[in-house]
Amino acid sequence: MRNPAWLVATTALICLGGCGSSGSSRTGTQSTVTLAPQSPRDLDQVVSAASHTLATTSGVSVQLESASVFGATPKPVGGAGAFDFTSSKGNLELNQPSGPERIIFLAQSVFVAQPNSGALLPAGKVWISAGLTENSLATNFPQFVTQVESLNPGLTLSELVWGAVSAAPAATSGAPAANTYAVEVDLARAQARTAGPSADAFRRAIGYQLTEMSGATAPNHITVYVSVDNRERVVALRSSPAGTGVGTVTLQLSRFGLPVQVSQPGRAQVADISSLAPGGERENAGGGDSDGA
Per residue in 75-107, pLDDT tens? Predict the structure, then answer.
């Protein structure tokens, strides 16, 4: 059986327990923020904009600041892709230090690949798949879901709809030219209200977030900086997911309504993440939750 530590080289987003790359901060970092008084009207605007955005498609650009998961020295990392929020599907290419990493998001699963991953995977395999609701992830790869889903704007938008409890106008360094709000999200509330095609996967992902936040100053609550344009669409999301090592994540949304084509790789090219852990059984995404569409 292969040592699961090879996953760090293959997909830098996967940091196994004990690797130490995400333990430096459980709360992450935030940019300098100036807040105005809270208003129920601001909260309504944010929640409405998140709902409208979840009813469409968009292009997405990603920027990670102070990410420690890619190595001992935090580095900025960028990427781009597109999402169909109505079906909870999307794709990203992340330009991490070791090379471009491709990620395919489906409603209940995710696929990750790098050009050089074939040398580290079983013969003929170039993709890793993970069923996001599988219990084996919690045992063998406890941070994987929170790390990879921190790049999924569909999850953050859904958390705003399900769990936002307050919002205040905020001026943040590096924010795009739009109305920007500091939004407090109650993750426990969001978890209890999950719905839609990714409900099970998002419920599990939020649960991992809550675990990472245990002992925090404000248990169950996170702050997301949300920028809304004059057409009531979310055009940027900025947050610092606790315990993930991805630093501060900025997701910028544009080209709303563009066609988005997402399909999973062929079975012959895919190794299931559960087969790569001690005691793993499956070798490819041929069944179970990993095959979710």
Answer: 778 899 999 999 999 999 988 777 788 999 999
Domains and CATH numbers, the chain: 34-281 (2.50.20.10)
User: Which helix (H) or strand (E) element contains residue 53?
Assistant: helix 40-53
pTM for the complete prediction? Answer: 0.81
Tokens 């499956």 identify what position? 282
pLDDT tens for 23-46 read 333 333 344 444 445 678 999 999
Percent of the chain, pLDDT > 70?
A: 70
- Stated as kind and residue range, the H or E segment containing 58 is strand 57-67
Going from the C-alpha of 61 to that of each of 80, 83, 105, the distances in angstroms are 4, 11, 15
> End-to-end alpha-carbon separation of the chain, Å?
29
Bridge partners for 252 per DSSP = 61, 236
DSSP string, 152-210: -HHHHHHHHHHHEEEEEEEEETT--SSEEEEEEEEHHHHHHT--STTHHHHHHHHHHHH
